[in-house]
Each structure stands twice: as structure tokens, then as C-alpha cells.
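seq as requested:
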Amino acid sequence: MKKISRAKRFDEALNKLSQAFAEFSDLKDEYQEWRDTIPQNLEGSATAEKLDEVLECSAFDDIENAQSELEAIELPKGFGRD
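C-alpha cells:
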């Protein structure tokens, strides 16, 4: 059985991260739309506060930054392999 190269595994993991980030980004957009259309009488409600927490979560930025940094990495090649 041939072992998958580190470079290939890195690319596959990065692809999974990109897919996950895209899903989180779509969800954040949906939460933003929900927050933008919340009725005025629910502005101070627990739901509005929880929506704000989701939208202010710095993890979204952390994931995006991590993805950008990983995409910029030039992987080493060793012993004639990827």
C-alpha cells in the first residue's frame, strides 16, 4: 500500500479547512441576516444577545487568518518527493 505524501495530505487538510471555513462564513451571513431583521421588540432579548455573540466571535477571523497563512506556506521537498 502506497503511503500518501505529506504534501498531498497537507493539501487535502487545507481543502477541508477551506470547505469548513466556507460553511462557517455562510452560516455567519445567515446569522447576520437574522440579526438585521430581528423585530424591534426583540432588540434586547436573549436571542439578540446570542446573535451578537456569534457575530462578534473572533474565531471566524482566526480561521480565516489560519487559512491564509497555511495557503501561503511553500512546503519543502525532500529526497525527490513532494
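The chain is about 70% helix and 0% strand.
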